[in-house]
Design a protein that fits this description.
alpha+beta, 3 strands
Length: about 100
C-alpha cells in the first residue's frame, strides 16, 4: 500500500511542477530585456520567450554610406538581448524544475 501512496505523491509533485513550468513560461513571455550596441545607438527589446518586441535606432547610427555597420549593430544588439533573455529563462526555469532536464 505504501508503494501506491508514493506513486500518488510523485504524480502530485509532477502535476505541480507542470503547472509551475506553465506559469513560468507565461511570465517569461512578458519579461522583457534590452540589448544594446554601438554605445546605445541601437537598442533591441526582446522577451525571455525570444520574441523581438522593439528595435530603436538613433538617427546618428544611420549612415547611408555604411549600411553594413548599422546591420552589424542591429545583429549585435539582438544577440545581446537574446543572451540576456536566455540567462533569465534558464535561471527561472531551473528554479522551477530544480535541475531536472525538461524538453524545452
Amino acid at each position: 500500500m505504501a508503494r501506491g501512496m508514493d506513486m500518488q505523491a510523485i504524480m502530485r509533485q509532477a502535476q505541480k511542477m507542470q503547472a509551475d513550468v506553465a506559469r513560468m513560461q507565461e511570465e517569461l513571455k512578458e519579461t522583457e530585456v534590452e540589448g544594446v550596441a554601438g554605445g546605445g545607438a541601437v537598442k533591441v527589446t526582446v522577451t525571455c520567450a525570444n520574441e523581438v518586441r522593439a528595435i530603436k535606432i538613433s538617427p546618428e547610427a544611420v549612415d547611408p554610406d555604411d549600411v553594413e555597420m548599422l546591420e552589424d549593430m542591429i545583429l549585435a544588439a539582438i544577440n545581446d538581448a537574446m543572451g540576456k533573455a536566455a540567462e533569465i529563462s534558464n535561471s527561472r526555469m531551473g528554479a522551477v524544475t530544480k535541475g531536472i532536464k525538461m524538453p524545452f
